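User: Last request for today: this protein with zinc ion, please.
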Amino acid sequence: MKYEPVIGLEVHLQLKTKTKAFCGCSTLFGQRPNSQSCPVCLGLPGSLPKLNHEAFGHSIKVALALHCSVQKEIKFDRKNYYYPDLPKNFQISQYDKPVAHDGFVDISSCGKIKKIRIKRVHLEEDAGKLIHQTGGPYSLFDCNRAGMPLLEIVTEPDINSPEEAYDYLTGLKSILKYLEVSDCDMEKGSLRCDANISVRPAGSDKLGSKVELKNMNSFKAVRLALEHEVSRQMEAVSAGEKLQQETRLWDAGKAVTLLMRTKEEAHDYRYFPEPDLVPFVPDPSYVEDIRKTIPEMPDAKAKRFKERFNLSDYDIAVLVSDKAAADYFEKCLESYDNPKTVANWIMGDITAQSNLKNTGIRELGISPQGLAELLKMIDGQLISGKMAKEVLLEAIEKRCEPAQIVRSKGLEQLSDKGELEKIVKVILGRNEKSVQDYKGGKKNALTFIIGQVMRETKGKANPAVINEILKKSLGE
Ligand code: ADP
Ligand code: MG
Ligand code: ZN
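Assistant: Here's the final one, the structure of the complex with zinc ion:
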């Protein structure tokens, strides 16, 4: 019998806000342990949570961009569990009335568009962090992360391969980055993903028992873990084994999934309404105001680029995947109207530098106008393409605009015809033998003459102009 994988993903997104989800503590990353904590974070008696307006606005923005329906009445619930990273012994989350429900994300898989339905989007708080000493007799607790606003985005089990899961995650991340509601940085933990997977006879509409996979810290790891799990489950069912519902951890070093807990040990969270936060009905005009702040989304941008610019699908996909790069591209075109050249520079040298420095394109310090100036200098034969690349690197290092480097170093190519003619004349006078050789048929004598002109001008002479002058002077 043939089997097919069925996958549903749960993404946790840390929202970018100044303060935590239910108190005024700062959300800055990498601060001294336990310096961002208060009675609300610790759940001390008498402390009262208050919903962060910014976090709620971000949730609505994401919900709308994912085509979800906003919940009519929004309610928070307590999810109870006892664990040392959770001093309150419960997490404020949402159970039956999440911020939003029933949306979708379109992914393009193997050239076809597929809809992945979004089941729910809910707001919750993060737990604190335990720092275990290797072999030590105790563990340390850092409260700074406790209470950070998290948005959980849950799909329906509509994904049918590890590849589709990967495509969904990259597509979702691109949308979330466009919305500017999170850093979406998996390394810093601001984006995390759990994957649920089962297998079933191909074509069946019944769901098998699912395995929940945790501990993947990159999209590639999610894909690898799913690939491993698909094979493991298919082998098991093919051998007549009955799979059970369980939670498994991805071990990246060994490239296997390991059993963490079975259904018997599964949590019973005993959700109940959070009594300190009253249910509320968002004003439709508030929701509409947020809708207006949603920028052009990646799909729409790609469509527009395709209609307007003569670029390959690949170029468009690369540019659009990073909103900052796409904006930079369009800004640059305002002063230099050559899409292909601009795209090549952004996708080439500029992206290489931002990858190297691990920053965004904007943080490199070269303005789009600055790049446009540089490209104009190449076209005007003021500098060569090769020089331009060096100038760009130096401008990034010195944090100034490329034109400043060109000017300060006097790098401008010498293209002035009158001036070059004078120099050529001098060189020809000095090298009569080579001139005779050339006229007598020794073609490489010309290379020598060009070399002499280059030496005289310290390499700045424009080769095309010299060629033209020499051809004329040598009577061709
Ligand atoms: P739970 O209550 O265990 O969290 P949910 O119904 O909320 O389960 O689903 C969690 C995630 O698991 C969702 O993304 C959902 O699509 C996915 N899922 C549910 N059942 C299955 C299944 N049998 N196989 C694969 N994924 C599933
Ligand atoms: Mg769940
Ligand atoms: Zn606090």
